[in-house]
Amino acid sequence: MSTEPGTAATADHEADHEIDDLAGLADLTAAEASAFLTSVTEVASGSSPDTALPILTLALSQVLVAGARLGAIQDVVPEERFEPDATDDDADPLRTGLANVFAGIDDYVYVIDPITSSDRADGSITNDLVDVAVALSHGLKHYATGRRVEALWWWQFSYLSEWGDRAMTALRALQSILSHLRLDVDDETVGEAEFDALHP
């Protein structure tokens, strides 16, 4: 069966357009991954303990938008079908710094899979943040060598299989901590705040 020249040209154009779209998405995801890593590293340094919770809450929220975008598109297929596991060989300083920041409030309980089971497990905000950072860093290594589609495939696959879940549970734990800090106050303090608001 022969293919008309116009049809072949159209197919080639669509393929090129798809590659361009994926490359653009890889650029965007790389920028968002880098921003997340910058925020987490800043918090782990201990330089701004008073802003650690809002910085991480915002960073996780933003990177989850990137993940949701990856989850909404069709599967990305890389040229090579082999992918080495991501490693956290360089993550020890990050883990130690975050553990210091979250000392006393690091642990939480979560439902493993709310769709299939009510089983619960123990979680750690520090470990979650490191897992997300390692997965995103692994993709950035591909991106830095010019393998943008492969980087995008890795970010998409690891979002669906690991870091998306870790980021979600960490964000839920952080939101809970923020809620307690902002809302768990005694009645006298609340009364004084209401009086001050009504009588400036």
What does this structure look like?
This protein has 200 residues and is mainly alpha-helical. The protein has a single domain (5-198), classed as Up-down Bundle (Four Helix Bundle (Hemerythrin (Met), subunit A)), CATH 1.20.120. It is 70% helix and 5% strand. It has six helices and two strands. It has helices at residues 5-44, 52-72, 92-101, 125-144, 148-183, 187-198, and strands spanning 107-111, 120-124. It has a two-stranded antiparallel ribbon. A hairpin with an 8-residue loop joins strand 1 and strand 2 (120-124). Residues 8-17 have low confidence and may be disordered.
**Integer average pLDDT:** 84
The rough form would be described as: globular
**Any idea of the CATH class?**
Mainly Alpha
Structural class: mainly alpha
The biggest beta sheet reads: 2 strands, antiparallel
Question: How helix-rich are the residues, as a percent range?
Answer: 55-70%
By DSSP (H or I, 4+ residues per run), the number of helices equals: 6
How far apart, in Å, are the first and last alpha carbons? Answer: 83 Å
